[in-house]
Protein backbone atom coordinates (compact mmCIF):
# COMPACT_ATOMS: atom_id res chain seq x y z
CA UNK A 1 0.00 0.00 0.00
CA UNK A 2 1.17 3.51 -0.75
CA UNK A 3 2.23 5.53 2.30
CA UNK A 4 2.19 9.25 3.07
CA UNK A 5 4.60 10.02 5.92
CA UNK A 6 4.24 13.57 7.20
CA UNK A 7 7.43 13.93 9.22
CA UNK A 8 11.09 13.01 9.00
CA UNK A 9 14.34 14.78 9.90
CA UNK A 10 16.54 13.61 7.04
CA UNK A 11 17.48 17.19 6.08
CA UNK A 12 18.84 17.90 9.56
CA UNK A 13 20.78 14.63 9.55
CA UNK A 14 22.24 15.42 6.12
CA UNK A 15 23.20 18.92 7.28
CA UNK A 16 24.78 17.63 10.49
CA UNK A 17 26.87 15.26 8.40
CA UNK A 18 28.04 18.04 6.08
CA UNK A 19 28.93 20.29 9.01
CA UNK A 20 30.94 17.45 10.58
CA UNK A 21 33.28 17.12 7.61
CA UNK A 22 36.16 18.40 9.71
CA UNK A 23 35.97 14.97 11.39
CA UNK A 24 36.65 13.43 7.96
CA UNK A 25 33.27 11.72 7.96
CA UNK A 26 32.16 10.62 4.47
CA UNK A 27 29.17 12.39 2.99
CA UNK A 28 25.89 10.53 3.37
CA UNK A 29 24.47 9.21 0.11
CA UNK A 30 20.72 9.77 0.23
CA UNK A 31 20.25 6.89 -2.16
CA UNK A 32 21.34 4.18 0.27
CA UNK A 33 23.22 5.43 3.37
CA UNK A 34 22.47 3.06 6.23
CA UNK A 35 22.54 6.00 8.66
CA UNK A 36 19.38 7.41 7.03
CA UNK A 37 16.05 5.85 8.02
CA UNK A 38 14.42 7.40 4.96
CA UNK A 39 17.01 6.83 2.25
CA UNK A 40 15.65 6.26 -1.26
CA UNK A 41 16.10 2.50 -1.14
CA UNK A 42 14.13 2.27 2.11
CA UNK A 43 11.38 4.58 0.86
CA UNK A 44 10.97 2.30 -2.13
CA UNK A 45 10.99 -0.85 0.02
CA UNK A 46 8.30 0.61 2.27
CA UNK A 47 6.09 1.86 -0.60
CA UNK A 48 6.38 5.42 0.70
CA UNK A 49 4.67 7.45 -2.00
CA UNK A 50 5.02 10.86 -0.32
CA UNK A 51 7.61 11.87 2.28
CA UNK A 52 7.52 15.16 4.16
CA UNK A 53 10.97 16.62 4.96
CA UNK A 54 11.21 18.98 7.93
CA UNK A 55 13.50 21.96 8.25
CA UNK A 56 14.54 21.73 11.90
CA UNK A 57 16.99 24.05 13.68
CA UNK A 58 18.19 22.88 17.13
CA UNK A 59 17.67 25.41 19.95
CA UNK A 60 21.41 25.67 20.62
CA UNK A 61 22.02 27.30 17.22
CA UNK A 62 22.56 31.07 17.79
CA UNK A 63 19.64 33.23 16.73
CA UNK A 64 21.67 35.07 14.08
CA UNK A 65 22.60 31.75 12.39
CA UNK A 66 19.21 30.04 12.26
CA UNK A 67 18.11 31.43 8.91
CA UNK A 68 21.39 30.29 7.35
CA UNK A 69 20.89 26.80 8.81
CA UNK A 70 17.38 26.67 7.35
CA UNK A 71 18.64 27.67 3.90
CA UNK A 72 21.37 25.01 4.10
CA UNK A 73 18.73 22.35 4.71
CA UNK A 74 16.62 23.57 1.81
CA UNK A 75 19.74 23.52 -0.36
CA UNK A 76 20.39 19.90 0.65
CA UNK A 77 16.80 19.06 -0.25
CA UNK A 78 17.32 20.48 -3.73
CA UNK A 79 20.82 19.00 -4.21
CA UNK A 80 20.73 15.62 -2.47
CA UNK A 81 17.08 14.58 -2.23
CA UNK A 82 15.53 15.67 -5.54
CA UNK A 83 18.67 16.78 -7.41
CA UNK A 84 20.30 13.33 -7.46
CA UNK A 85 17.13 11.22 -7.58
CA UNK A 86 15.00 11.79 -10.70
CA UNK A 87 12.23 9.58 -9.29
CA UNK A 88 11.73 11.94 -6.33
CA UNK A 89 9.45 14.80 -7.32
CA UNK A 90 9.13 18.06 -5.41
CA UNK A 91 5.51 18.67 -4.39
CA UNK A 92 5.10 22.44 -4.66
CA UNK A 93 1.29 22.44 -4.68
CA UNK A 94 -1.24 20.03 -3.19
CA UNK A 95 -2.50 19.35 -6.72
CA UNK A 96 0.91 17.84 -7.54
CA UNK A 97 -0.02 14.85 -5.37
CA UNK A 98 -2.61 13.91 -7.99
CA UNK A 99 -0.12 13.66 -10.86
CA UNK A 100 2.59 11.47 -9.33
CA UNK A 101 3.52 8.61 -11.64
CA UNK A 102 3.72 5.01 -10.45
CA UNK A 103 7.50 5.00 -10.05
CA UNK A 104 7.70 8.50 -8.48
CA UNK A 105 7.94 9.55 -4.83
CA UNK A 106 6.59 12.94 -3.82
CA UNK A 107 8.71 15.16 -1.54
CA UNK A 108 7.19 17.94 0.59
CA UNK A 109 9.22 20.58 2.46
CA UNK A 110 7.95 21.53 5.94
CA UNK A 111 9.13 23.78 8.75
CA UNK A 112 9.37 22.51 12.34
CA UNK A 113 9.52 25.66 14.44
CA UNK A 114 9.38 29.27 13.20
CA UNK A 115 12.68 30.27 14.85
CA UNK A 116 14.57 30.76 11.53
CA UNK A 117 12.24 33.52 10.34
CA UNK A 118 12.17 35.53 13.58
CA UNK A 119 9.46 38.12 13.01
CA UNK A 120 10.33 38.71 9.35
CA UNK A 121 7.35 38.22 7.04
CA UNK A 122 9.63 38.41 3.99
CA UNK A 123 11.48 35.30 5.20
CA UNK A 124 8.14 33.58 5.75
CA UNK A 125 7.03 34.35 2.20
CA UNK A 126 10.43 33.26 0.89
CA UNK A 127 9.90 29.84 2.48
CA UNK A 128 6.56 29.61 0.71
CA UNK A 129 8.30 30.39 -2.59
CA UNK A 130 10.88 27.67 -1.87
CA UNK A 131 8.03 25.21 -1.51
CA UNK A 132 7.19 24.93 2.20
CA UNK A 133 3.66 23.48 2.45
CA UNK A 134 3.43 22.78 6.20
CA UNK A 135 4.41 25.19 8.95
CA UNK A 136 4.93 24.25 12.61
CA UNK A 137 5.02 27.40 14.74
CA UNK A 138 7.24 25.96 17.48
CA UNK A 139 9.45 23.10 18.48
CA UNK A 140 9.30 22.26 22.21
CA UNK A 141 10.22 25.70 23.55
CA UNK A 142 9.00 29.28 23.16
CA UNK A 143 9.74 31.58 20.25
CA UNK A 144 8.28 34.77 18.82
CA UNK A 145 5.19 32.93 17.55
CA UNK A 146 4.07 30.85 20.53
CA UNK A 147 5.05 28.55 23.38
CA UNK A 148 5.98 24.97 22.64
CA UNK A 149 4.68 21.83 24.31
CA UNK A 150 7.43 21.75 26.94
CA UNK A 151 7.58 25.48 27.73
CA UNK A 152 6.54 25.79 31.42
CA UNK A 153 4.71 29.09 30.85
CA UNK A 154 2.25 27.40 28.49
CA UNK A 155 1.19 30.58 26.69
CA UNK A 156 -0.67 30.65 23.40
CA UNK A 157 0.01 32.45 20.12
CA UNK A 158 1.48 35.93 20.02
CA UNK A 159 0.17 38.64 17.71
CA UNK A 160 2.94 37.68 15.28
CA UNK A 161 2.08 33.98 15.58
CA UNK A 162 -1.51 34.74 14.65
CA UNK A 163 -0.33 36.68 11.60
CA UNK A 164 1.76 33.66 10.54
CA UNK A 165 -1.31 31.42 10.73
CA UNK A 166 -3.24 33.90 8.58
CA UNK A 167 -0.42 33.84 6.01
CA UNK A 168 -0.55 30.03 6.04
CA UNK A 169 -4.27 30.26 5.28
CA UNK A 170 -3.69 32.63 2.37
CA UNK A 171 -1.14 30.25 0.83
CA UNK A 172 -3.05 27.02 1.63
CA UNK A 173 -0.21 25.93 3.89
CA UNK A 174 -0.93 23.48 6.72
CA UNK A 175 -0.50 24.79 10.27
CA UNK A 176 1.11 21.98 12.25
CA UNK A 177 0.09 21.71 15.93
CA UNK A 178 2.34 18.81 16.93
CA UNK A 179 4.79 20.81 19.07
CA UNK A 180 2.46 23.53 20.37
CA UNK A 181 1.41 24.27 23.93
CA UNK A 182 -2.21 23.44 24.75
CA UNK A 183 -3.21 27.12 24.67
CA UNK A 184 -1.35 27.56 21.40
CA UNK A 185 -3.23 24.58 19.97
CA UNK A 186 -6.60 26.16 20.74
CA UNK A 187 -5.52 29.47 19.23
CA UNK A 188 -4.60 27.61 16.02
CA UNK A 189 -7.92 25.75 15.98
CA UNK A 190 -9.69 29.11 16.16
CA UNK A 191 -7.64 30.74 13.38
CA UNK A 192 -6.29 28.08 11.01
CA UNK A 193 -8.09 26.91 7.91
CA UNK A 194 -5.79 23.89 7.60
CA UNK A 195 -4.68 22.60 11.02
CA UNK A 196 -3.14 19.16 11.36
CA UNK A 197 -0.79 17.17 13.60
CA UNK A 198 2.22 15.92 11.65
CA UNK A 199 3.55 13.58 14.37
CA UNK A 200 1.57 13.22 17.59
CA UNK A 201 -0.10 10.42 19.55
CA UNK A 202 -2.99 10.19 22.04
CA UNK A 203 -2.31 11.57 25.51
CA UNK A 204 -4.97 9.35 27.06
CA UNK A 205 -2.87 6.33 26.03
CA UNK A 206 0.53 7.89 26.82
CA UNK A 207 0.65 10.99 29.03
CA UNK A 208 3.40 12.97 27.34
CA UNK A 209 3.31 16.75 26.62
CA UNK A 210 3.89 16.05 22.93
CA UNK A 211 0.69 14.03 22.66
CA UNK A 212 -2.86 15.31 22.18
CA UNK A 213 -5.74 15.27 24.66
CA UNK A 214 -9.04 13.79 23.51
CA UNK A 215 -10.70 17.19 23.10
CA UNK A 216 -7.80 18.30 20.91
CA UNK A 217 -8.17 15.22 18.71
CA UNK A 218 -11.91 15.82 18.39
CA UNK A 219 -11.27 19.47 17.48
CA UNK A 220 -8.90 18.46 14.68
CA UNK A 221 -11.47 15.99 13.37
CA UNK A 222 -14.15 18.70 13.39
CA UNK A 223 -11.87 20.99 11.35
CA UNK A 224 -11.13 18.20 8.86
CA UNK A 225 -7.54 17.92 10.04
CA UNK A 226 -5.49 14.74 10.22
CA UNK A 227 -3.60 13.24 13.17
CA UNK A 228 -0.45 11.39 12.14
CA UNK A 229 0.76 8.90 14.73
CA UNK A 230 4.48 9.05 15.56
CA UNK A 231 6.81 6.07 15.97
CA UNK A 232 8.93 7.35 18.89
CA UNK A 233 8.61 4.92 21.86
CA UNK A 234 8.46 7.60 24.63
CA UNK A 235 5.40 9.04 22.85
CA UNK A 236 3.88 5.54 22.63
CA UNK A 237 4.66 4.00 26.03
CA UNK A 238 4.96 6.42 28.94
CA UNK A 239 8.49 6.55 30.35
CA UNK A 240 9.84 3.82 28.05
CA UNK A 241 12.41 3.75 25.26
CA UNK A 242 10.93 0.58 23.75
CA UNK A 243 7.69 -0.20 21.94
CA UNK A 244 6.05 -2.86 19.81
CA UNK A 245 3.78 -2.27 16.83
CA UNK A 246 0.90 -3.45 19.02
CA UNK A 247 1.60 -0.52 21.36
CA UNK A 248 1.32 1.94 18.47
CA UNK A 249 -1.97 0.34 17.46
CA UNK A 250 -3.42 1.29 20.87
CA UNK A 251 -3.10 4.94 19.84
CA UNK A 252 -4.76 4.28 16.48
CA UNK A 253 -7.57 2.39 18.21
CA UNK A 254 -8.11 5.24 20.63
CA UNK A 255 -8.22 7.91 17.92
CA UNK A 256 -10.71 5.75 16.03
CA UNK A 257 -12.85 5.54 19.17
CA UNK A 258 -13.06 9.35 19.13
CA UNK A 259 -14.39 9.35 15.57
CA UNK A 260 -11.02 9.70 13.87
CA UNK A 261 -10.99 6.68 11.56
CA UNK A 262 -11.00 8.97 8.50
CA UNK A 263 -8.41 11.34 10.00
CA UNK A 264 -5.50 9.08 10.98
CA UNK A 265 -2.18 9.01 9.16
CA UNK A 266 1.50 8.31 9.83
CA UNK A 267 4.22 10.77 10.83
CA UNK A 268 7.14 8.51 11.65
CA UNK A 269 9.76 11.05 12.86
CA UNK A 270 12.36 8.82 11.21
CA UNK A 271 15.88 10.30 11.22
CA UNK A 272 14.91 12.40 14.24
CA UNK A 273 14.39 9.78 16.95
CA UNK A 274 16.88 8.04 19.22
CA UNK A 275 14.84 4.85 19.76
CA UNK A 276 12.42 2.99 17.53
CA UNK A 277 9.47 0.63 17.49
CA UNK A 278 10.63 -2.96 17.09
CA UNK A 279 10.18 -4.15 13.48
CA UNK A 280 9.38 -0.56 12.47
CA UNK A 281 12.88 0.85 12.63
CA UNK A 282 13.12 2.58 9.25
CA UNK A 283 10.95 3.42 6.24
CA UNK A 284 11.64 0.08 4.59
CA UNK A 285 9.72 -1.74 7.32
CA UNK A 286 6.30 -0.13 6.79
CA UNK A 287 4.99 -3.50 5.57
CA UNK A 288 5.22 -4.84 9.13
CA UNK A 289 2.89 -2.09 10.35
CA UNK A 290 0.46 -2.62 7.47
CA UNK A 291 0.29 -6.37 8.07
CA UNK A 292 -0.55 -5.81 11.74
CA UNK A 293 -3.23 -3.25 10.90
CA UNK A 294 -4.86 -5.63 8.42
CA UNK A 295 -5.43 -8.12 11.24
CA UNK A 296 -7.83 -5.69 12.92
CA UNK A 297 -9.13 -3.27 10.28
CA UNK A 298 -10.70 -3.64 6.81
CA UNK A 299 -8.36 -3.05 3.89
CA UNK A 300 -10.11 0.18 2.89
CA UNK A 301 -9.67 1.57 6.40
CA UNK A 302 -5.96 0.70 6.37
CA UNK A 303 -5.60 2.37 2.96
CA UNK A 304 -7.10 5.44 4.59
CA UNK A 305 -4.51 5.40 7.38
CA UNK A 306 -1.72 4.94 4.84
CA UNK A 307 -2.64 7.49 2.22
CA UNK A 308 -6.27 8.28 1.46
CA UNK A 309 -7.22 10.10 4.66
CA UNK A 310 -4.60 12.76 4.03
CA UNK A 311 -5.58 13.01 0.36
CA UNK A 312 -9.21 13.56 1.36
CA UNK A 313 -8.45 16.13 4.08
CA UNK A 314 -5.63 18.12 2.48
CA UNK A 315 -6.23 21.65 1.19
CA UNK A 316 -7.83 21.66 -2.23
CA UNK A 317 -6.92 24.43 -4.64
CA UNK A 318 -9.84 26.73 -5.12
UniProtKB/TrEMBL annotation:
Record-linked PROSITE patterns: RENAL_DIPEPTIDASE_2 (PS51365)
One GO biological process term: proteolysis
A Pfam family recorded for this sequence: Peptidase_M19
InterPro entries per record: Metal_Hydrolase (IPR032466), Pept_M19 (IPR008257)
Gene Ontology molecular-function annotations: metallodipeptidase activity
Gene3D superfamilies: Metal-dependent hydrolases (3.20.20.140)
Protein's name in the database: Dipeptidase
Amino acid sequence: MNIIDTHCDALFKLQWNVRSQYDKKPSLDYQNAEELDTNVRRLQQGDVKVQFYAIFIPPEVPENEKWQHALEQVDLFYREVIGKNPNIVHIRSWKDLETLQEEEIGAVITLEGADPIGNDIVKLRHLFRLGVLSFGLTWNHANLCADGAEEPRGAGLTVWGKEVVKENNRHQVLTDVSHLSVRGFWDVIELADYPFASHSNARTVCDHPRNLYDDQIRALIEKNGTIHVVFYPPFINEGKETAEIADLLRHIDHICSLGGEKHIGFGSDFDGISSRVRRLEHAGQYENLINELLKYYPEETVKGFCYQNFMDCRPHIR
